[in-house]
Amino acid sequence: MALARRVLSVAVAVALLAASASADSWLYEKFTTDGNVRADYNSQGQQVTSLILNQQSGGAFSSRQKYLYGEFSIQMKLIPRNSAGTVTSFYLTSGDGPGHDEIDMEFMGNSSGQPVVLNTNVWANGDGKKEHQFYLWFDPSADYHTYTIIWNDKNVIFKVDDLFIRSFKRYADLPYPGGKPMSVHATLWDGSYWATQQGKVKVDWADSPFVVSYRGYNADACTPNGDGRPLSCPAGTDRWMNRQLNTAEWGTVAWAKKNYMHYDYCEDGWRFPKGFPAECSRH
Ligand SMILES: *[C@@H]1O[C@H](CO)[C@@H](O)[C@H](O)[C@H]1NC(C)=O
After folding, report:
1. Confidence category of residue 23, pLDDT binned at 50, 70, 90
2. Is the pTM above the cut of 0.85?
3. Among this protein's residues, is 71 annotated catalytic?
4. Which terms in the Gene Ontology molecular function aspect does this entry carry (predicted)?
5. Domain map of the chain by residue range?
6. Which is deepest, 14, 116, 174, 233, by most CB within 10 Å?
7. Does ligand 1 have an atom closer than 6 angstroms to the CB of 108?
8. Domain 27-281: assigned CATH number
């Protein structure tokens, strides 16, 4: 009897463990992987996915599903110490072709003790010269932080933890990533030619492997049903479908711009000698 009870309680414990693990086993269920990808569980049963960059390869995961509008978030813990030359990303894209749409959050690594830069960008019909880049107000490698993209037919919103840092608005007469379904991607790659101080500081392979960890992925998003048929959307879509920033949230965007902005395409006269893109002068 005592033995039977113990066996039973072990069985229950195993079942509970399996249930909590599967509740947060997002990687293989929702994504395909490429290159160096490792999946583990932390002590809370939460799946932690690591992308690893060594001299042979980087790593990536890409959603099986395409979405048309949604709120996408993930927690990330970036490469500690020397991450110069590396690029770590969380982004949406409609594909690789010309005329593609894309929404990016990319972390450009740096030498030990030098600040990482978060590049946000929006591509519409293949045009992606719309970067806002920020330094962060914390060390993104010391702990997990939540990075969120809200994409609806009114604007694209970027958020770091609870703070909004950018809203890219839609104007009826200007390009906007509005029509093409996009998949979700996370990547870690060698961006030596570009990432750090305009490519001056390269990846130092003596410090490899470089590891980035992701956990707590969430996509609250609509999926397209094919030509002209309505989207399937989860319950409670209103939470993000009509989301635009309120006055207080525009305040955090202004705070981030004032204190942490590293680059704003709307201020790069060298790059746009014939005048800035039209949205730069609208508000
Ligand atoms: C890296 O550090 C240098 C020096 O502090 C800084 O100028 C640069 O903006 C930092 N970030 C990147 C991505 O180069």
Report:
1. low
2. yes
3. no
4. hydrolase activity, hydrolyzing O-glycosyl compounds; xyloglucan:xyloglucosyl transferase activity
5. 27-281
6. 116
7. yes
8. 2.60.120.200
